[in-house]
Amino acid sequence: MDSNLKMHTPQSYAILFALLATFAKSAVAQYPVKQRDAALAHKARLEAEQEVKATIDSMLALLKSEDYHTLIARYFYPPDVDQTLSKVSFEALIAQFKMNAPALQAALQEVKGRSPEWNDEFSCAYFERKGRDVLFVRYKGYWYLRNAGRELAK
Asked: Which of helix, strand or coil describes residue 111?
């Protein structure tokens, strides 16, 4: 018991208070950093959301004008397009896409006014919907429609 009493000396209390004060200062100092990080994340999300909405608007305009060549070349995920073009010509891809254009137009109209689910980096925008979901990814600084499922959105 005597050893326990020796631990509670004025010096041990001074050390304990010094540690608590250091911890409190550290926690208070981190609060503005956390606020700043949250504000930056909010700003990044708003910017990404505006970019995706602009992409959807541009895609809908191209679908309306039936400019499928530009639509595929500019807004379809390039590695997916390259993989498809290793099997068929661009003209065949466009001909095949013409059959699916109304479905894509309907899907984009449906998600146009909604907020997507985001990954942590705000580089994947995922719209869940009945039927086929819609996924946009940022690739080399641009937003593209990705022919993939939810597993790539995370």
From this structure: helix
Flag residues of the chain having pLDDT under 70: 1-10, 12-13, 16-17, 19-37, 148-154
Place of tokens 């992409």: 55
**pLDDT at res. 80:** 92
91 contact partners, CB below 8 Å, separation of at least 6: none
Residue by residue, DSSP assigns 78-92 as HHHHHHHHTTS-HHH
Whole-model pTM over 0.85 = no
What pLDDT score was predicted for residue 153? 46
| End-to-end Cα separation, the chain, in angstroms | 57
**Contacts with 116 (C-beta within 8 Å, 6 or more apart), sequence order:** 49, 52, 125, 126, 127, 136
Nearest Cα residue to 97 out of 121, 105, 5, 86: 105
Pick left, alpha or beta for residue 122 (phi over 0 → left; psi -120 to 50 → alpha; otherwise beta): left
Q: Which of 56, 43, 55, 41 is nearest to 121 (CA)?
A: 41
HEC-encoded secondary structure of 31-76: HHHHHHHHHHHHHHHHHHHHHHHHHHHHHHHHHHCCCHHHHHHHHE
